[in-house]
């Protein structure tokens, strides 16, 4: 069926994504022209082969947000909707991650788990990689990596073998999230020979597996992470993505892989226009983060969801990261309604200026105890020591030798707790909330203003995803008309739609 369209019903016709559009008009040269717009459904966006390989219907991934903010419920809802969700394992206890793996492994739909680079806790990174291997987790999102590590290579190469037809089968898949070209190159390359030799020496892989591993990329898919919440280099998507995509093409040729290297885009995707732009640039898939945290299924508190619903694009700022504090790494967080960014920055300044807690002037120490810690520093160190005594005793041993490291651990206590206070909605600590957030949150709020999605309690993660994909397809069809010199109506808008209305337009 073809829709015969007039200027009066252009918008409604474009919304019916499953029907082509046919329109005649007289151009500036007084000649009659025929205009045609093909069907374009959300499942036709992105790389359909990627979707088939992963087992999803739509090229839409929910990225991992630490401490379970990308929750079990979020992964379940995205999975049921034919999309993919990553569970946010970073910053959680090992036992909590194990419970999440057990819960989601029987869900009946694809999902993934985060493996974050942990230079301060290498044993935990290794333990999580082993957990994923033992529990047959076939897909991880590798994030915040500064270099490839042995646990990551161990996960990727585990079980690698040749099929009967000679095809190399690597059961464990990595989708790497990077914001720098040199890191993308590492993931698009085969596993480093040095690390393969080490795994071979440890008996983790055979000589044949080492040879096979040298012929596959560490990650077939890389997500170009632009200006996002959390760990980010604040790269503009329109500059970062084409660079990483071009690199993928060069690396595919260089190594002669039997598989296609793909690039997705994350960071700043919170409106149909942003999603459409990502697919127009050639993204195999899009990945969302900040907007998912504002949804009811996220593992954060209602008070944070309300704060996010009031966020504008300028309400975010960079602040010291708890997991890489000593390295000076920053994360992007919400600054509206919280003093955390300023207080965290002050802690890092003090860390750089002093050799230990004892060298901090008395008035400064008093201020820390009264405004940030709300307890004597000695009590904070006692609790911090007990925590690391259980999690990583080597940190305690080093802290007792090195006053500066002890100071870093105490300061990291505040940074880590600030995320928990936000996640738990601690009423007495609202001014210390650490909320990972990118400017995409403000764009989403602007787009949804006045609609049903303006209310935090209406923000269902699958509904948001369906709207972004539907809107991207609709805008792409509208642009096809524009390219044929058809002006869209002045009131043409892509407003959020209830799920039932999206379904009507797709059938």
Q: Notable features of this structure?
A:
three-stranded mixed beta sheet; TIM Barrel; 507 residues; eight-stranded parallel barrel; 3 domains
Walk me through the structure.
The chain has helices at 10-15, 48-54, 72-80, 94-105, 122-134, 150-157, 181-188, 193-201, 207-213, 237-255, 272-281, 290-293, 302-309, 340-353, 362-373, 377-391, 393-401, 403-424, 440-448, 461-483, 499-506; strands at residues 3-4, 21-26, 32-37, 60-62, 84-87, 112-116, 139-143, 161-162, 168-169, 173-178, 221-225, 230-231, 262-266, 286-288, 316-320, 330-334. The chain is of the alpha/beta class. The chain has three domains: 3-39 and 461-506, no CATH class; 43-300, TIM Barrel (Alpha-Beta Barrel), CATH 3.20.20.70; 312-432, no CATH class. The strands form four sheets. The protein has an eight-stranded parallel beta barrel with strand order 4-5-6-7-10-11-13-14, surrounded by five helices. Strand 1, helix 1 and strand 2 form a beta-alpha-beta unit. The two termini are 12 Å apart.
């Amino acid at each position: 069926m073809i829709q015969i369209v007039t200027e009066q019903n252009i918008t409604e016709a474009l919304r019916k994504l499953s029907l082509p559009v046919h329109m005649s008009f007289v151009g500036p040269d007084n000649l009659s022209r025929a205009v045609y717009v093909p069907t374009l459904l959300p499942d036709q966006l992105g790389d359909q082969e990627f979707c088939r390989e992963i087992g999803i219907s739509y090229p839409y991934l929910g990225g991992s947000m630490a401490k379970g903010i990308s929750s079990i419920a979020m992964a379940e809802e995205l999975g049921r909707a034919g999309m993919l969700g990553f569970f946010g394992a970073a910053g959680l206890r090992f036992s909590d991650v194990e419970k999440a793996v057990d819960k989601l492994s029987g869900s009946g739909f694809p999902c993934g788990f985060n493996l974050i680079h942990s230079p301060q806790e290498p044993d935990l990174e290794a333990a999580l990689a082993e957990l994923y291997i033992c529990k047959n987790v076939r897909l991880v999102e590798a994030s915040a990596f500064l270099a490839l590590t042995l646990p990551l290579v161990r996960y990727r190469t585990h079980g690698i073998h040749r099929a009967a037809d000679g095809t190399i089968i690597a059961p464990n898949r990595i989708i790497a999230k990077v914001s720098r070209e040199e890191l993308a190159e590492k993931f698009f390359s085969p596993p480093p020979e040095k690390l393969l030799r080490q795994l071979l020496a440890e008996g983790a892989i055979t000589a044949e597996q080492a040879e096979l591993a040298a012929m596959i990329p560490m990650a077939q898919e890389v997500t170009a992470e632009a200006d996002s919440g959390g760990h980010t280099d604040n790269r503009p998507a329109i500059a970062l993505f084409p660079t990483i995509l071009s690199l993928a093409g060069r690396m595919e040729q260089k190594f002669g892989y039997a598989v296609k290297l793909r690039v997705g885009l994350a960071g700043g995707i919170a409106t149909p226009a942003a999603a459409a732009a990502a697919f127009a640039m050639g993204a195999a898939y899009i990945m969302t983060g900040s907007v998912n945290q504002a949804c009811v299924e996220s593992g954060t508190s209602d008070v944070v969801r309300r704060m996010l619903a009031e966020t504008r694009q300028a309400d975010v700022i960079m602040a010291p990261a708890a997991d890489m504090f000593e390295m000076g790494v920053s994360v992007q967080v919400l600054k509206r309604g919280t003093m955390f960014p300023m207080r965290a920055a002050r802690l890092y300044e003090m860390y750089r200026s002093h050799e230990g807690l004892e060298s901090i002037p008395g008035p400064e120490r008093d201020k820390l105890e009264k405004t940030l810690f709300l307890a004597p520093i000695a009590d904070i160190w006692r609790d911090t020591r007990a925590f690391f005594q259980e999690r990583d005793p080597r940190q305690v041993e080093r802290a007792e030798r090195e006053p500066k490291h002890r100071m870093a651990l105490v300061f990291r206590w505040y940074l880590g707790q600030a995320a928990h206070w936000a996640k738990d909605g601690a009423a007495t600590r609202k001014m210390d909330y650490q909320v990972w957030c990118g400017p995409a949150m403000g764009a989403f709020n602007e787009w949804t203003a006045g609609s049903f999605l303006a209310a935090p309690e209406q923000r269902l993660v699958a509904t948001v995803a369906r709207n972004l994909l539907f809107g991207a397809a609709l805008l792409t069809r509208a642009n096809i008309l524009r390219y044929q010199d058809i002006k869209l109506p002045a009131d043409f808008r892509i407003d959020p739609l209830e799920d039932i209305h999206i379904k009507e337009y797709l059938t």
